[in-house]
Specification:
globular; 21 helices; two-stranded antiparallel ribbon; mainly alpha; 70% helix
Amino acid sequence: GPPSIGAQVARRAGIAASEMRGTYEGLWLLDRSDQHASSAPRPEEQLAKTASIRAEMHLDAGDLAQAEAEAKRALSLDPDGSISRQATRTLADVYTSQGRFDEATRAATDAMPARTTRDERWIGLSARTLLARIALEQGRIAEAVAGTRAVVVEARELAEDRVGLLAETLLRDLDPTWVPTDVVRETLPWAVRLPVLAQDGRDLLVRGDARRAAGLAADVVALADSARLGRDGVDARLLLGRALVDLGDLDQATTTYLTALDHCRTMGLPLRAADVLDGLAAVARMRDMTEARSLAAAAFALRTPRKAVRWGYSADFDVVPASRAPDEWLDGDDLSADSVALVTAAFTRTGSARPSVLDSLTAAERQVAERVAHGLTSRQIAEELYVSPRTVDAHLTHIYRKLDINTRARLAALVVDNR
């Protein structure tokens, strides 16, 4: 058939695969769409549309650099501006996640022209949700509530269910009196289902049911990791860490927060990294660690240049920050390349204890190693640590490489010998 139809079919199949099977499951179909487009009479139009969808996939996965590059590529290829609003909205989302609020505001405003077609209504609603999110990050709570409420009401009237549900997760966090939409979670695509489930967990935490909140958060973490939804995975780990603190399980809270910090550093999510650092500061204070105030200072240093404030879980913790964060933790306004390792070392330091071959392991790897020594299977370890069995196996791979061993029996013996 015509190449333009082939490009469109492959692109829509890619979207469906991404929504139902995981973020990057449809990426190869987008490559196929580009192959068809190269033979089309107007290849730029098809290539621009595919680049815009690819940018959304990278955004969902948390690869913000690739998302920005593909969105800008879509804009440069677009011959008649038909895809410009969608690509610009994606850029606004990228910039919001990175704390580049001035650029995000301009992009979101550009994505909302005075008139829209029926197919583009979701873009304007989504852009307005991003503006509400920026207001929340910068402490303009009343503006955030009003903006999000207006989006949810309008989305219901227009039957733009996905955008409405995503906006509603933010509104439920801000306005506990809001009555949420009754939906069957299992029927939603991953990118909508996980934020809704995470908000369900936050509601449980607010009601004082930390154990159920932790269980639901762990489920969302596993689903986010398997579906390659990076930003949702970070948000779920923040919820899980907070619930574990309430339950008094500081070891698992520390591991959860450190994993989230690593993901924030890799993805370039400075404000979520600040939330993680506040959580770690609270844990450090409970453990009488001298680094507690330094961790709070690092969180403050990430927010200040972005004119951001503490909200949500971070507002629950009130550790007075030191006058400045350790220089080696920061690189300008962002975390340094060594920051995760340095913060992790603060929580795994053995003090005056004798050196151990296990000192090279991270906190998460130590927890896995200890459970291997107790004879637990990967699945049992995953259930105890609120992670997926695949994550446990990945930790084991790293442990074996660091310790130059290749069996669980040898690892168990090393743990016992070094207790």
